[in-house]
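cache lookup: miss for this entity combination. No prior model stored, computing from scratch. Input as submitted by user K.M.:
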Amino acid sequence: MCSRSVCVLELNRILRFNIIGNTHFSTIHVVNGFLFLILRLLPYFCRMIEVCLLGAGNVATHLYHALNGAEDVNIIQCYNRKGIPLHPDQDATQIITDIAALKDADVYIVAVSDDAIAQISDKLPFQNRLVVHTSGSVPMDAIAGDNRKGVFYPLQTFSKDKSVDFGTIPICIEAEETQDLNTLKKLASPLSDKVYEITSAQRNVLHVSAVFVNNFTNHLYTIGTDICEAYDVPFEILHPLIQETAKKILEIPATEAQTGPAIRNDQQTIARHLKIMNTDSQKEIYTILTKAIQSKHGKKL
Amino acid sequence: MCSRSVCVLELNRILRFNIIGNTHFSTIHVVNGFLFLILRLLPYFCRMIEVCLLGAGNVATHLYHALNGAEDVNIIQCYNRKGIPLHPDQDATQIITDIAALKDADVYIVAVSDDAIAQISDKLPFQNRLVVHTSGSVPMDAIAGDNRKGVFYPLQTFSKDKSVDFGTIPICIEAEETQDLNTLKKLASPLSDKVYEITSAQRNVLHVSAVFVNNFTNHLYTIGTDICEAYDVPFEILHPLIQETAKKILEIPATEAQTGPAIRNDQQTIARHLKIMNTDSQKEIYTILTKAIQSKHGKKL
């Protein structure tokens, strides 16, 4: 039995007891009035959140999969111009290609590319409803039109063909109104244990950091791969080191985990390394990051 | 019963059968001759590898823990100038502070800092024995003295207080002589499933790549932390993204996993990000890595 049913049964039991029980009338009156109020408010707390999902990219697809299995969430429509299903088994009647056909919903999630957020939200054929985007770098007020604005940003790198465990993904939410923030909390909580209220300014800061720890880190993996390939050394030998480097950040701050020739100011090794690199870009990045590590940790090149 | 005892018993059984069994004499002679040869060679294949471990740093400590529990390996002595035990329960008689007191062993592992390898190996009071260092960046011939040289390099980032699962750590081995390479293979195989024969030149290449994927990546984590701290945003929100970035490299090449404003040439986001960074060093690294990603992926800034 779901927690909602238990809650209603419990209320009925208390109501019955108070009406037929041997209790003073005025107490019955007060308690029943209070319970009547709770019952009136119950649908607000307990009913399904109805969602329309706009977009057909990586984020839309992964959100569809996560929300589709979530308790108390009902995806009523998915809009994208080409009518692409977000799952092979998706009910075709759920997919619309005409934005004007969007039904009433509690939340409209605009999971499209950053540039398209203003354009799509401007075409929404209604007003004063909760419209959220899913971008890390676009401010909330980029949502056009006269709707209530919000953000529902799952902070993760999504690939179309790679499933993700949504339970570990932080979801950063933002809304203009408290009531909408509560709706977004309710929408996020069955998906993830990590729900953060984050302002547009804070989200921008997170996004810059994410570029360093994800995009730039990935480019360092690319350089590592290129150097290994140039000398016919299998890059996979470095896989365990990469995993350990990422795991360490969960236990100690990065500044304490720093090792290597830069922080040791090991000029001999640095010189030998620079001879191995084949491109000016690799040498430039090596030199600048070496200098940055030494500057951060109080050593001069 | 250990596999060695089983092996010897089985050979005795076959020998006995061949001597007393109803077999043609010449066959007995040939088979017994063959088995005699195997028995003569058996100690070479089966006996414990005796190891002396020199050094008391992170690598020496982690190697001690790994080798101490390894089948067919016997650590007979540990040398370091201060007589520091490598484990709280280590037998005190095993620890020596006088390098001249080193006993006969199959392998002497010089697990000291890169600069000290030549110096320590030069002081060894014997010749023509197998002496290996554990460094990623020092050539094998940096080992001084008239001993047989080798390398036993576990490719991982070690912290003193953090235990590591040696089973997943690649061990790169190198030796001047085939027989010594075989000894190092036998020493490495109970420790790790990933044993690679790697030349000094290849090891140098691996070490440069390791600097990119470990040291420099860790510095990017430091920058991410600094940016978050400057704006009071909890950096831990980025932990799952960091883990996912590292996991992705196990499945798809880094060049295919590249995402973000650089590869999309999203100038608006890049400009907004540059405004957030507080230091010239952060801006310089951001600009150079953005340019490198675009150059690698065929886009111009």
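stored under new cache key. Chain B has three domains: 3-46, 49-198, 205-296.
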